[in-house]
Amino acid sequence: MASAQGPAQGSCGLSASEGGACSLPSKKHKETTKPVTNIDDEALLSTVPSLLQSPLSPMDSKTGLPVPSTPPTNLQSLLGPTATVLYVEGLDLTSLLSDSKYSSVKLLATIKEHAPTKQCPDDDCLGVGDFATKYFPKGDVYHNPSLDFWSALGNRRLTSQRPSSYNPFKIYKGIKEMGKRQTEKGIKGNLKGEGIVQGGVMVFDSSGNLKYVYKEMTGYLLPKEEIEKAIDEILG
């Protein structure tokens, strides 16, 4: 995903093994989170109908390539019986939804590319399969070639963060911590990918209504409690 803020390219140009997430700063930093996206954002909400129909190609967790002879599906068809958490470039959510009460919640991750790419001739280099098997074993990974989900989140990049949140020292330490976590998890992390595009998290109910959105802020912790609270409200 990531997966994890990477083999599969994600935020900060990191591999999918970390899911493109630069969400976790050094442990020395105070654990703070940035505000979530306002769900009343009409521009964002207006994209939901098209997002539900956006093509998603299932990825083979062993090969890191699209499943052979399998036509694309869409989010509408993949919605879970209660709630669906979609990781746009899987962030560092390995401990999210560990409680058994979330067993009915569906976990999905999207990636922007698969091998071969300009930087990686095969998945041993890019690492989508590594991400899917080691970092995102409880969810399913899909390729979204139209990039609709990134567009809905504003096609944001690391350099587009507000000056007050763009702290290069914190970001650098976050990236270093990420590399350490990758090694500890036994995940290949080659930092290959398209670049510094930032991802996020979207939570949908069973009818496809968007209930929660988080836009990744590099160098800040993911608001896991807020995400779980949004899911709790759906579960009732």
Gyration radius, in Å = 16 Å
- What percentage of residues falls in helices of 4 or more residues? 25-40%
Largest sheet: 7 strands, mixed
Number of helices: 8
Query: Any idea what the CATH superfamily is called?
Result: Glutaredoxin
Low-confidence stretches: 1-37, 163-172
Count of the domains: 1
**What string gives the helices and strands in order?**
HHEEHEEHHEHHEEH
Structural class: alpha/beta
Shape: globular
Order of strands across the main sheet:
2-1-5-4-3-6-7
Give the averaged pLDDT, no decimals.
74
CATH class: Alpha Beta
What percentage of amino acids are in beta strands? Answer: 5-15%
What's the architecture, going by CATH? 3-Layer(aba) Sandwich
CATH topology: Glutaredoxin
Number of DSSP strand runs: 7
Overview of this structure, please?
This protein is α/β, with parallel strands linked by helices and 236 residues long. It has a single domain (11-235), classed as 3-Layer(aba) Sandwich (Glutaredoxin). The protein contains eight helices and seven strands. The protein has helices spanning 42-45, 48-53, 75-78, 123-126, 128-135, 148-152, 168-185, 224-235; strands at residues 55-58, 73-74, 83-88, 106-111, 140-143, 200-205, 210-215. Strands 2-1-5-4-3-6-7 form a seven-stranded mixed sheet. A hairpin with a 4-residue loop joins strand 6 (200-205) and strand 7 (210-215). The radius of gyration is 16 Å and the shape is globular. The protein starts with 41 loop residues before the first helix and ends with a helix. Mean pLDDT is 74; it is low at 1-37 and 163-172. Residues 1-14 have a biased composition (Polar residues).
